[in-house]
Design brief:
Length: about 300
């Protein structure tokens, strides 16, 4: 049976380098899924609070806050995730109190690289369960994660496997394995890589896809090439503009030069799009550059219509 399409999964990680549009596209995917009637939650990690800003909402923190019909948002704080995890795991009250009082988690996290990522993914796993561990928790059809920028490789999604390998036996091992099983479950979990139409970002996105596929084993459902300029002029028109750009009339010359330059950019972006399509296996979809000073929820809504 072929794996379901992106929005029909239960868990989507939106990933890519810093500043490429991950948060914008995570919100756009959330809007789209919610509009299709799916109960959806967009999760931010590392307390960035960018998604809540889209909705002009105050910081949401470690709570599931409704932004629109069918659309919730949460900012996953690792300390809070650890606290919640321990409350669910440790039945002995005195032990829990002791651990919380003693700054236990801060020390443990400092001594254990990757622990914050592990408990963050643990919380994501919990949100994606139909039988929520958190008593007040809702059931979501879709969990969308605005993943951390991949400046440091693929660390985030690889964390469960790394932990499962370090802890060979015991509860950490089996829980890390359980998280990894969700990540590599192509029927329920997928990723969308966000790329920009420039040479280096295209190379990096192709490398990221290969790493996610070969080393993490997660499904890659989509590559979004974000911020594509429109092609406004035909070749003939562009030639005409070049003549004007070298002409005598100052105002016409300035306008024509700007148009020639934008045309050049749009064309080189098309070349990068072609390169990206050759170099990745996942279907590539383009998203237009929106000429607005700051994209709010309406900008994300415009992109949401173009996501399929
Ligand atoms: N299609 C687009 N058209 C115009 N502007 C865009 C588009 N997509 C994103 N932007 C703008 O680019 C900037 C970066 O976008 P965004 O914050 O979504 O990126 P990010 O990958 O989440 O960044 P970070 O890695 O810092 O979290 C924002 O100012 C956003 O409004
Ligand atoms: Mg972001």
């Amino acid at each position: 049976m072929p794996a379901p399409d992106l929005l029909d999964k239960r868990l989507i990680f939106v990933t890519g380098k810093g500043g490429v549009g991950k948060t914008t596209i995570a919100v756009a995917l959330g809007l789209r899924a919610a509009e299709e009637g799916k109960r959806t939650i967009v999760c931010e990690v590392a307390a960035q609070e960018n998604a809540s800003r889209f909705f002009g909402h105050a910081e949401v923190g470690f709570h599931e806050v409704e932004m629109e019909e069918n659309l919730w948002s949460i900012s996953i704080d690792p300390d809070e995730s650890m606290r919640e995890y321990m409350l669910l795991q440790l039945k002995v009250r005195a032990m829990r109190d002791l651990l919380f009082r003693s700054r236990f988690f801060s020390y443990l996290a400092a001594a254990t690289p990757g622990l914050k990522e592990l408990v963050t993914i643990g919380k994501i796993w919990e949100l994606a369960q139909l039988d929520r561990k958190v008593k007040s928790g809702r059931k979501y059809d879709l969990v969308i994660v605005d993943a951390p920028a991949t400046g440091h490789g693929i660390g985030f999604l690889q964390t469960p496997r790394t932990f499962a390998n370090i802890a060979r036996v015991g509860p950490i091992h089996s829980q890390a394995q359980q998280l990894n099983r969700l990540i590599v479950d192509h029927a329920h979990t997928g990723t969308a890589i966000v790329a920009l139409p420039e040479e280096m970002p295209v190379n990096e996105s192709a490398a990221l896809e290969a790493e996610l596929r070969d080393e993490v084993g997660v499904a890659i459902d989509r590559v979004y090439l974000n911020g594509l300029y429109p092609e406004r002029f035909s070749g003939e028109e562009a030639e005409c503009l070049s003549v004007l750009a070298a002409g005598e009339n100052g105002a016409v010359r300035a306008a024509a030069r700007a148009a020639v330059s934008e045309h050049g950019r749009a064309r080189s972006q098309r070349a990068q799009l072609a390169r990206l399509r050759r170099r990745v296996e996942a279907p590539v979809k383009t998203l237009p550059f929106l000429f607005e000073p700051e994209l709010g929820v309406e900008g994300a809504r415009q992109l949401a219509r173009r996501l399929h």
